[in-house]
Write a structure and sequence with these properties.
about 80 residues
């Protein structure tokens, strides 16, 4: 059984995949490196890079707009 404080904390957590953009992480979710080291976080809501081109990874810096990053594959033209 979880404590009420843990339950209410989890209710405030969400991850939203923005079309053609970052993942918006809201709430107290730890962000760690592949080695398991914590990544500094100053805000309750952060944007995580999905395009791989950000200069401040794992956070988004808006580069996805410059490189025309798309989350949906281009569909071939239908005749």
């Amino acid at each position: 059984m979880t404590s009420p404080s843990a339950s209410s904390r989890n209710d405030d957590v969400s991850i939203v995949a923005c079309p053609d953009g970052p993942l918006l992480v809201r709430g107290e979710v730890p962000i760690v490196t592949p080695a398991g080291e914590p990544v500094p976080r100053r805000r309750k809501t952060v944007a995580l890079c999905r395009c791989g081109a950000s200069t401040i990874k794992p956070y988004c810096d808006g580069t996805h707009k410059l490189i025309n990053f798309r989350t949906e594959p281009d569909l071939p033209d239908q005749e």
